[in-house]
Design a protein that fits this description.
The structure holds 2 protein chains of 2 kinds. In chain A, 36% of the residues lie in helices and 24% in strands. In chain A, β19 (423-427), α17 (435-450) and β20 form a beta-alpha-beta unit. In chain A, α14 (355-367) packs across α15 (375-389) and α15 packs across α16 (405-418). Chain B is mostly helical. A two-stranded antiparallel ribbon of chain B has the order 1-2. Chain B has a two-stranded antiparallel sheet with strand order 3-4. Chain B is globular, with a radius of gyration of 23 Å. The relative contact order of chain B is 0.17. Classes of the chains: A alpha/beta, B mainly alpha.
């Protein structure tokens, strides 16, 4: 009994304010030993802040933290680690140019006669990776591995012998199904060793597969807490949104229509050696074409080849009946295309620039540098987009780097919409976006499609593809292996196409 | 924490959208204004400048006196502006390059080449406005060269511009040989008029500097060039996907910087009316970078502050002039300068400010 009563880590009445924002408002949060505790909430609900308080990255204004019933003060990440709290943040924060060994032993290198013993370090690195069942060359730079492996290395780094609480902030965001399953196996194993695991994710089905308990935050307050079994999906979503949500699935289905008319975009034999085998693809106005496939199957590559962000070395592409001679993002833009990249931090946002500047850039590049949008036009466009997409920002002149991840994603989407494109390419449009925003974005896309926008969506989430697509191109190992027509779009047909050789 | 602010934060927790109005209403207007002022990025360099000037006023009572001598303005303040002009002009170009996450170490060498070319062409008997065009042409060529190395060959800016920095002064010396190199001095009413002359009471170079500032401001703020420059500096991968030709934009940045350096070269060479490639504009690149940084520019790129950069150049020059007029031995100059610069930069650091305001806030409670 005593075991279940004493939480491994407890946060009591924790509050934290940032200028203009009450990020946490008297939040209680308990994690028991040997449980996976999902922390849920929309963007800006306070999840990240709570985690940062727990791991010493941020200090709370009031409240108490207890580890194993003992009040503690966590003033720095180092202190958190000393207390047995290990963290893996949302964006992998290791050093890609350094070897796996160095990443794993940085700051605690084994020494011999005062010098670093790299031989011991390598052994140590392999030792740390063993429980995660990954067998890689620890001397290679971390950046040369897939994001999934990098994520696992980050977890290996957070896990120490005395780790009692492991915090995972969206660990599965960049993992495919198999890798996620591997991670879950590892989590179950860690759980059985009595480690308390805090798990943040936007994937609802993953929560139901792995979490024992759920805490829900909204606007900096704890609005619900309980065993997973007591919080069915709809109730959870309602708590997160603070309103009842009709089944999103059905609402989206109604928008589907048969494709017809002249295609607005035709790609023939488009490809690039070692990147993507040549493929054919066409897009009709008002149509949504999904790109399905596992991680690394070439979804992003197809999207970027069509947009000209990867220069094709074979094939041709016609937009609106006009051949694009040398495809480039600038050319594509002038032909009415827009692209929303997958990795918003690296390829999407300009952190120092304001929300307004980030948004209007989409139209400004099309107009050229001489034809500057006046300040009042910029302000109007930005306000329009902020309202249309529900971007949470006090004003349009806030640097985008200061917004939450989901809102940054919306800003990138706003930038691609502001140029009034006739073809929109979205690469993982809802990655790191909460349920409510997800529905808003999909609804907006539907509206634009009804007005004749042609849309291409690359996504790792089958449900999302099934919900929005009129047609799905299926990819495997960097070739296009099939196309599924509007009649048979289901999870099963997609999976069967990926798995089988049907084409 | 005051009761008023407590209510405000609670309210904002419930309705984030209404937060802005609530905040403005809860704060006394005067305090709100003060806070906005403290948050403005110009405040720290301005404070530093004011502080240095106040100290000057206390040490030497006549410091602020401005007289008219021989039909022109005289006095320490005029002197500061006068001497700061070449650095400020170079720093403006530097601010543009730094905004693209680049750097241009070659500006001093560009000045040396400009000085040598001016002397050479005047010895050659060219009309003096043609000589001026030659000088600016040198800036264009040097900018294109740096741009080629950075934008096309993709060499890291610090290395790419180091090439011209090292070779430039040598090129200047070689140009001196073109006319025998025996007497590298010249007289030119046009160029000296631009540099050391004055229009009614005002030194011409101040007008010239103001014109360069105005032209540059129009170029980057009244067209979208500034936004493009900043987006390339902020995130070049994202800029590429947004359809910006990053290569062309970087070219433009180095070109602008080269032309600015050339104008500074005209001013400096005409001032000394000689070609002295070894020492003209020596270390001006460092002062220019410093001016940009004092003005709040970050070497990691993404932002261009033209006005603030000029302010930065003024802080540096005011400091130098102050040390000289204060009676401190000139040997102290560099060390005192370094100390003040550190203080200004620390005051600008967001981290330190957070620590200070944290300590301040706790003290109030």
């Amino acid at each position: 009994m005593a075991e279940t009563l004493t939480a491994r880590i407890e946060m009591l009445g924790v509050s934290k304010s940032f200028p203009g924002v009450r990020a946490l408002d008297h939040v209680d949060f308990h994690v028991q030993a040997g449980e996976v505790h999902a922390l849920m909430g929309e963007n800006g609900a306070g999840k990240s802040t709570l985690i940062k308080v727990m791991t010493g990255a941020v200090r709370c204004d009031e409240g108490e933290i207890r580890v194993d019933g003992r009040p503690v003060e966590i003033r720095s990440p180092g202190e958190a680690r000393a207390l047995g709290v290990g963290t893996v943040y949302q964006e992998v924060n290791l050093i890609p140019t350094m070897s796996v060994t160095k990443n794993l032993t940085l700051g605690r290198q084994p020494r011999r006669f005062g010098l670093i013993s790299w031989r011991t370090a390598r052994a140590l690195a392999r030792e740390r990776l063993k429980p995660l069942k990954i067998d890689i060359d620890v001397e290679r730079p971390l950046g040369s591995f897939s994001l999934a492996i990098q994520q696992l290395v980050a977890i290996a780094r957070a896990l120490e012998d005395d780790t009692r609480v492991l915090v995972l902030d969206e660990p599965t965001a960049s993992l495919d199904a198999g890798e996620t399953e591997l991670l879950f196996q590892i989590l179950r194993d860690l759980k059985s060793r009595g480690i308390a695991i805090v798990f943040i994710t936007h994937f609802l089905d993953q929560v139901y597969r792995i979490a024992d308990r759920i805490s829900v935050l909204r606007n900096g307050r704890l609005v619900g807490e309980g065993p997973t079994a007591d919080l069915p999906r709809l109730k959870l979503i309602a708590l997160m949104l603070g309103r009842e949500l009709e089944e999103t699935e059905e609402r989206l289905q109604t928008g589907r229509r048969a494709a017809g008319g002249e295609p607005i975009l035709v790609a023939q034999g488009l490809g690039r050696r070692r990147v993507m085998a040549p493929f054919d693809l066409s897009l009709n106005p008002g149509e949504v074409v999904g790109l399905a496939g596992l991680l690394g199957s070439g979804r992003t590559e197809v999207a970027k080849l069509v947009f000209g962000a990867i220069r094709p070395d074979s094939g041709q592409i016609d937009v609106g009946g006009e051949r694009i001679a040398s495809p480039s993002p600038g050319q594509s833009l002038r032909h009415g295309m827009a692209f929303c990249p997958e990795d918003r931090k690296a390829e999407g946002i300009f952190a120092e620039l304001t929300v307004r500047e980030n948004i209007v850039l989409g139209l400004q590049t099309k107009r050229g540098w001489l034809n500057r949008l006046s300040y009042s036009e910029q302000e109007r466009l930005a306000q329009e987009m902020i309202e249309a997409l529900g971007i949470a920002t006090p004003d349009a002149d806030k640097p985008v780097g200061q917004l939450s991840g989901g809102n940054q994603q919306k800003v990138v989407l706003a930038r691609s919409l502001v140029s009034g494109p006739s073809i929109l390419i979205l690469d993982e449009p809802t990655r790191g976006i909460d349920v409510g925003a997800h529905a808003e974005i999909v609804a907006l896309i539907r509206k634009l499609c009804a007005q004749g926008l042609a849309l291409m969506v690359a996504s790792s989430e089958l449900d999302e593809l099934v919900a929005v697509s009129d047609r799905i191109a299926v990819l495997r190992d960097r070739r296009m292996i099939g196309e599924i027509g509007s009649g048979d779009i289901t999870r099963e047909t997609i999976i069967r196409t990926i798995a089988g050789s049907r084409s | 924490m005051t009761p008023g602010s407590n209510v405000e934060t609670k309210a904002s927790g419930i309705r984030p959208r209404a937060k802005v109005e609530i905040q403005a209403g809860a704060l006394p207007p005067r305090l709100g204004g003060l806070r906005a002022l403290a948050g403005h990025r110009a405040i720290w360099p301005l404070l530093a400048l004011a502080l240095i000037l106040i100290v000057d006023g206390l040490i030497s009572p006549g410091f602020f006196t401005i007289r008219v001598v021989d039909g022109r303005l005289f006095g320490n303040l005029v002197d500061i502006l006068y001497r700061a002009t070449p650095t400020a002009v170079v720093a403006l170009g530097m601010a543009v390059v730094i905004g693209t996450k680049g750097i241009d170490l070659s500006v001093g060498s560009v000045i040396a080449i400009v000085g040598a070319v001016i002397t050479w062409r005047i010895h050659n008997g060219d009309p003096h406005f043609v000589v001026l065009l030659f000088a600016l042409g040198v800036g264009v060529l040097c900018g294109l060269w740096n741009g080629f190395l950075v934008a096309v060959l993709d060499i890291q800016p610090i290395i790419a511009t180091l090439i011209l920095m090292v070779s430039g002064r040598g090129i200047g010396l070689m140009i001196n040989l073109l006319y025998g190199g025996t007497n590298p001095s010249f007289t030119s009413p046009l160029l000296q008029g631009l540099s050391v002359g004055h229009i009614s009471l005002v030194p011409t170079r101040l007008i010239l500097g103001g014109a360069i500032f105005g032209a540059l401001w129009l170029l980057i703020r009244r067209t979208a060039l500034g936004l493009f420059l900043e987006s390339v500096g902020g995130n070049s991968a994202a800029a590429d996907l947004a359809g910006i030709n990053a290569r062309l934009i970087k070219y433009a940045a180095y070109l602008i910087c080269g032309i600015c350096a050339a104008w500074a070269g005209v001013i400096l060479a005409a001032d000394t009316h000689t070609s002295d490639p070894v020492s003209i504009g020596l270390y001006i690149e460092l002062d220019a970078i410093l001016a940009v940084v004092i003005g709040g520019g970050s070497l990691s790129g993404g932002r261009i502050y033209l006005g603030m950069t000029v302010l930065g150049a003024l802080v540096i020059q005011t400091l130098t002039t102050s040390i000289l007029t204060s009676g401190l031995p000139p040997e102290y100059n560099l060390v005192v300068k370094a100390f003040v610069v550190i203080v200004v930069l620390l005051l600008q650091s967001a981290n330190l400010r957070a620590v200070l305001s944290g300590a301040f806030g706790r003290g109030k409670r």
